[in-house]
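Module 6 notes. Inverse folding takes a fixed backbone as the condition and produces residue identities as the prediction. Think of it as a translation problem where the source language is geometry and the target language is the twenty amino acids. Below is one complete input and output pair. Work through it position by position during the lab.
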């Protein structure tokens, strides 16, 4: 018990230090972007977000998995390509905004990568310190509500089109063990596998969250199925074609 308390104390101190350092690194970069400025998103905003991550890479958290960088790159590319296809159908979406939001959706993992249920809270705190506008933060996927806290997301009509794209990009922006982009029909197994990675690495206060995560995973798969169907039926966007385009597309510098 004493050892656990000491670990918690050390982790909290480390979290505070990393939060302050990342805010210092990123404030000047973010204030030049539409994440802070009230204007339309442009390609240079995406580049500046990449610049922020590049600076952080010089001294990352020791438990941050290398796959994190690949994930935010792939999720960003998925979001951008979905955005472009929706835009070509006449919808009012900004592909650069979707790409930037997708790249920062898991920003809390830079600070607390090994605490699965703490990263969203830490990420929100960092975005506040970086000066990201409230209306921009509200465009992110409402993770808490998906998890059943502060509301309950049960169907896609509770999400904006942009949030649907971001959720889809987050889950599709992954690779399997053989190095290929994940296929939609493989998502269920991968999400369960990634949740299991954290089961032996949580304190007692987080164990209830692990149990709830199983139900959340099943719900996300159902929502993802509905998003896929809507993208195909309503907007004529084929998921396999987007996946192929992502695999051929050029990655931003991250």
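Target side of the pair, the amino acids:
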């Amino acid at each position: 018990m004493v050892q656990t308390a000491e670990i918690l104390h050390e982790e909290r101190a480390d979290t505070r230090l990393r939060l302050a350092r990342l805010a210092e690194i990123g404030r000047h970069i973010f204030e030049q972007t539409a994440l802070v400025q009230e204007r339309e998103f442009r390609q240079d905003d995406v580049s500046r977000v990449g610049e922020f991550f590049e600076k952080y890479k010089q001294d990352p958290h020791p438990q941050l998995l290398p796959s994190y960088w690949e994930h935010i790159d792939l999720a960003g590319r998925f979001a951008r390509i979905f955005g472009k296809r929706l835009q070509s159908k006449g919808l009012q979406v900004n592909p650069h905004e979707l790409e930037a939001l997708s790249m920062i959706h898991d920003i809390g993992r830079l600070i607390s990568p090994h605490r699965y249920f703490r990263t969203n809270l830490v990420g929100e705190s960092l975005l506040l310190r970086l000066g990201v506008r409230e209306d921009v933060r509200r465009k992110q996927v409402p993770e808490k509500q998906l998890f059943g806290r502060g509301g309950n997301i049960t169907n896609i009509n509770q999400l904006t089109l942009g949030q649907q794209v971001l959720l889809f990009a987050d889950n599709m922006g992954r690779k399997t063990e053989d190095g290929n982009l994940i296929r939609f029909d493989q998502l269920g197994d991968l999400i369960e596998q990634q949740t299991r990675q954290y089961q032996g690495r949580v304190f007692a206060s987080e164990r209830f969250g692990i149990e709830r995560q199983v139900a959340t995973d099943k719900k996300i798969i159902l929502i993802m199925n509905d998003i896929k169907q809507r993208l195909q039926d309503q907007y004529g966007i084929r998921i396999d074609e987007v996946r192929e385009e992502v695999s051929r597309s050029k990655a931003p510098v991250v």
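Reference fact for the lab report: The CA atoms of residues 25 and 82 lie 30 Å apart.
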